[in-house]
Recover the amino acids of this structure.
């Protein structure tokens, strides 16, 4: 459903001196600086996949999505959505995709939500009977019944985001691009949105490409993730493979009967005291096993409880960026 072959994009930035003279100089003799935003990225996404596309700010995520959706054209390489090139088949591609970019709205601010939905359906030539059928289904899934006739300006952020999701699904897109879909939402609305994405994927085999700084979105929805750093793809694979290959440091938390008097000292581990009765040991898996760490702790402290702490994907991704642990 999504293909990108050796795609690159470079931005030209004009460096201008301050003041009027600087403006005049830059007008007649502009000094350009070229910044590569995306460098030789290839990507293939099959029908029905939910892909997490993650990276730090400025890594090239948004530029990639804009090229995949036809907003920008790549300087090099080719992009296809369901076999169609956005540059040559813009209208046909737009009918097959849905896009939700952060705070950019599909809804008209001053009119009731239902009227924005009707306008959206007309733009995409959705037949009236099909529109009513889809509207009913989306209203149920996203719990919109009480807000359909309210102006968008009167909605809370969570209500508005739910309506944005309904709008982009009225024409039932085959491919959906979501850029920070749950940013700023409370836990209840986030889970509702995640359930909705799962339902659309299961019932209609909708393909999703999701960028998010909320790693719970990625972990709960995506079996496969793509990591981009400084415009280059540095990882493309399963979450499980990422944990196995990049999670070299684990943590065990301990609770003691009596107050802790001295830290545990041993090579290749880090001892962290939380309070007088709680501490954690961070250790490298190539040097220690779980059993060995627990044995060391029981030998020195009156242990009451032991908790294995699973490393999060967010911690792994942060370590990849900081230490350059590319696959």
């Amino acid at each position: 459903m999504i293909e990108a072959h050796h795609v690159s994009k470079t931005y030209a930035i004009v460096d201008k001196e301050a003041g009027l003279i600087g403006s005049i100089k830059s007008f007649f003799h502009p000094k350009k600086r070229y910044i590569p935003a995306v460098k030789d990225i290839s990507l293939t996404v099959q029908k029905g996949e939910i892909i997490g596309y993650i990276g730090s700010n400025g890594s090239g995520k948004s530029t990639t999505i804009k090229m995949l959706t036809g907003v920008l054209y790549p300087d090099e390489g080719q992009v296809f959505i369901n076999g169609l090139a956005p540059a040559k088949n813009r209208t046909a591609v737009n009918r097959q995709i849905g896009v939700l970019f952060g705070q950019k709205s599909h809804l008209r601010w001053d009119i009731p939500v239902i009227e924005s939905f009707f306008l959206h359906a007309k733009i995409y030539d959705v037949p009236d009977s099909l529109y009513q059928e889809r509207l009913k289904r989306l209203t149920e899934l996203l719990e919109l019944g009480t807000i359909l006739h309210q102006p968008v300006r009167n909605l809370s952020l969570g209500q508005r985001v739910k309506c944005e999701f309904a709008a982009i699904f009225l024409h039932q897109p085959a491919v959906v691009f979501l850029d920070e879909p749950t940013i700023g939402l409370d836990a209840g609305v986030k889970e509702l949105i995640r359930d909705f994405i799962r339902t659309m994927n299961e019932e209609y085999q909708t393909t999703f490409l999701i960028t998010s700084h909320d790693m719970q979105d990625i972990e709960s929805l995506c079996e496969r993730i793509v990591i981009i750093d400084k415009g280059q793809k540095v990882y493309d694979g399963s979450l499980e493979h990422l944990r196995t290959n990049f999670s070299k440091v684990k943590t065990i938390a301990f609770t003691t009967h009596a107050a802790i008097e001295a830290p545990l000292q041993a090579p290749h581990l880090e001892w962290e005291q939380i309070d007088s009765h709680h501490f954690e040991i961070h250790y490298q898996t190539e040097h220690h096993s779980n059993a060995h760490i627990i044995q060391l702790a029981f030998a020195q402290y009156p242990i009451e409880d032991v908790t294995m702490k699973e490393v999060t994907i967010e911690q792994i991704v942060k370590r990849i960026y900081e230490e350059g642990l590319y696959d």
